[in-house]
From TrEMBL:
It comes from Balneatrix alpica. The keyword Ion transport does not apply. This is dTTP/UTP pyrophosphatase. Gene3D superfamilies: 3.90.950.10. Signal peptide: none annotated. Its cofactor is a divalent metal cation. InterPro entries: ITPase-like_fam, Maf-like. CDD domains: Maf. Belongs to the Maf family. YhdE subfamily. It is found in: Cytoplasm. Pfam families: Maf. It catalyses: dTTP + H2O = dTMP + diphosphate + H(+); UTP + H2O = UMP + diphosphate + H(+). It is an enzyme of class 3 (hydrolase). It comes from the Bacteria.
Length: 197
């Protein structure tokens, strides 16, 4: 077992973590991703990132586990993964021609005995969409890409053509902010190509 486990089956997060040169294994963390009543987006993504890491850390004591969660927020509304085509079209039309915030939280967590250590960061990136129409949204849905993405788009794929500009971390919008994740790994004494531990 490696000293680090990524609590995600996301190929995008796995590829991003590989860019840091970290030695890690992968485990699936299935949790309830429902938004709690009255929960703000910042608290929501932080809670989910920690919950994903905690589920795996409980199975692997004394091992650092990295959890991450990304959500899209427009005018205070949290846009998670779409339920179906109509939900995806609704989300994309909400984002059309306007700026929204993509929030990504990262939690590096370890449980040893009764002691839980948790290092975390949260990153906000501003993303502006080009104007869209319903026909374009439906064509995009038909590609299959939006189905498992927060806000119904993937900036690293076909959905990148919908984005006019971003202000902040591109890798955070994809699902794992590289700079902040590297800093957390370094704090925990885990090796990356930036700072060998």
């Amino acid at each position: 077992m490696s000293r680090l486990i990524l609590a995600s089956q996301s190929p995008r997060r796995r590829e991003l973590l590989m860019q840091l040169g970290a030695n890690f294994s992968v485990a699936s963390a299935d949790i309830d991703e429902s938004v709690l009543v009255g929960e703000q987006a910042e608290a929501y993504v932080s809670r989910l990132a920690q919950a994903k890491a905690r589920v795996i850390a409980q199975r692997h004591p004394a091992t650092w586990v990295l959890g991450s969660d990304t959500t899209v927020v427009v005018e205070g509304e949290i846009l998670g993964k779409p339920q179906d085509e109509e939900d995806a079209v609704r989300m994309l039309m909400r984002l059309s021609g306007r700026c929204h915030t993509t929030l990504t939280a990262v939690a590096l967590l370890r449980i040893e005995g009764e002691v839980e250590q948790c290092l975390s960061q949260r990153v906000a990136t501003q993303v502006r969409f080009r104007p869209l129409n319903e026909a374009l949204c439906r064509r995009y849905w038909a590609t299959g890409e939006p189905a498992d993405k927060a806000g119904a788009y993937g900036i690293q794929g076909l959905g990148g053509a919908l984005v006019e500009s971003i202000e902040g971390s591109f890798s955070a919008v994809v699902g794992l902010p590289l700079c902040e994740t590297a800093q957390l790994l370094e704090q925990a004494g885990l090796a990356t190509w930036l700072a060998d531990a």
